[in-house]
Amino acid sequence: MNQLRSYPSLYRNGSLTPEITLSMLSRVSAAGSTSVASLLVRIKEANDYQLSLTYLDAGGADERINTVVHASMSVGSKITDTFSYSGTAGAYVLQSTARAIGVYP
């Protein structure tokens, strides 16, 4: 079940440190074409910037980020990064990320 949280952590069991997590999110957020990167900067600099995170296995030992959504109503856009994993309980590995751009709200 997905659950909304306010701060990222790919794993609570210590497999990844918060520094690695933030570094990974920064790379994903900066990826893409110049226009997407420019849109992301505009969204993040907006005074109504909203960051939403959803987790898989929330609260458990295998808790990991499912989606990161950057949104701004004043910009009228949102960017969603979705993380895909493979493996089994206790040994999930990040396989890929996907980015989607949408109209907000």
Summarize the structure.
This protein has 105 residues and is of the alpha+beta class. It is built from two helices and five strands. The two termini are 23 Å apart.
List the helices and strands and how they pair.
Elements: E1 3-5, H1 18-30, H2 34-45, E2 50-56, E3 64-72, E4 77-86, E5 93-103
Antiparallel strand pairs: 1-2, 2-3, 3-4, 4-5
* Average pLDDT rating: 77
The number of distinct structural domains comes to 1
By helix and strand content, what is the structural category?
A: alpha+beta
* Portion in helices: 10-25%
Q: State the shape.
A: elongated
Rounded to the nearest angstrom, the distance between the terminal CA atoms is 23 Å
Task: Let me know the largest β-sheet.
Answer: 5 strands, antiparallel
The amount of beta strand, in percent, is 35-45%
What's the total helix number?
A: 2
Q: What is the H/E string?
A: EHHEEEE
Which consecutive residue ranges, at least 5 long each, have pLDDT under 50?
1-32
Q: What is the strand arrangement across the widest sheet?
A: 1-2-3-4-5
Gyration radius from CA atoms, angstroms:
14 Å
* Strands, total number: 5
